[in-house]
Amino acid sequence: MDARKILLVIFDGLDLQPGDIAFRGNFASVDEEMKLTDRRAGRIREGTDELAKALDGLKLGRIKATVLAGTEHRVAVVLRGRGLSPRVTDTDPHEIGETIEESKPLESAAKVTAKAVNAFTKQAYKILKSHPVNRARVAKGEPPANAIVLRGAGVFPDLVPITERFHVTAAGIAGVALIRGMFRTIGMDVIDVPGATGGLDTDMIAKADGALDALRTHDLVVLHVKAPDLCGHDGNASEKIRVIERMDAMMGHLKTMLATDVVVALTADHSTPVALKDHSGDPVPLTIFGEGVRVDEVLNFDERSMAHGALGRLRGTDVMNVLLNASNRVEKYGA
Fold this sequence. Notes:
By secondary structure, the chain is of the alpha/beta class. Helices cover 30% and strands 19% of the residues. It folds into two domains: 5-13 and 158-326, Alkaline Phosphatase, subunit A, CATH 3.40.720; 21-154, no CATH class. It is built from ten helices and twelve strands. The strands form two sheets. Strands 9-8-10-1-11-12 form a six-stranded mixed β-sheet, with helices on both faces. The chain is globular.
């Protein structure tokens, strides 16, 4: 039987090197006491490139900081120098009214890193608070992006490219720089789609059309939509419903255009309940469909209904193998 193609519906530009320590971060708003007044600086959409450039190349003693703006308020910060360790605490307090936290070493080898992070926090505030972008925002009554809060220190991973691990050609479509960077890291081609913003205004139909085009030359295409997560973080249930309705339309568009040999998986990488306004550890729904894929009795795509599905509860690391099997790409043994 012929192997099928797969469509999986689920910081670009950084040149990381061994020894670098990378952080995810937010442009945030703080008062003069460094207390958070807006963790996302009003979801700033314009001027972040200029703000990042003002900080890029900062010297923190023997350490150099590279700063790259992402989508909306998101920013990546990379520390480069000798003697660095990712074993440091975050500076992001996560709660409005809380003071930006001091980074602390979790091991003696991380003292240099923690010192550099804290120096970065202070210098960034000093530079950003008087930046023309922020002066203009304050004049318009908008929250200034006058600070950066950091979290999730990590090192460049030594990963086997997806082309070698699963023997597929792969491409990804996303508007969020973090996801695009992940695609590149594992050896996927990144497809640029006009209108793919990573925000609520993203053009989902254009992304779907981009995925259809990519399937002509790739075995696996990952299409990422960020919008539902944004609504969850904002606690905006009505907007999340509208986003899901738009995703329904996107999936309907895909289904009418897909070739019969394509296996489709629809899932999420995490849950962001509106009530929590944050990520949770709840299991996420997963559905797989395509010609010849076994059908169960579940009719609705939601957490409660799909808990009774034939797939059961899978680990994330198992999903790719399930898809390869459904698309007849798994090598058979003893058959």
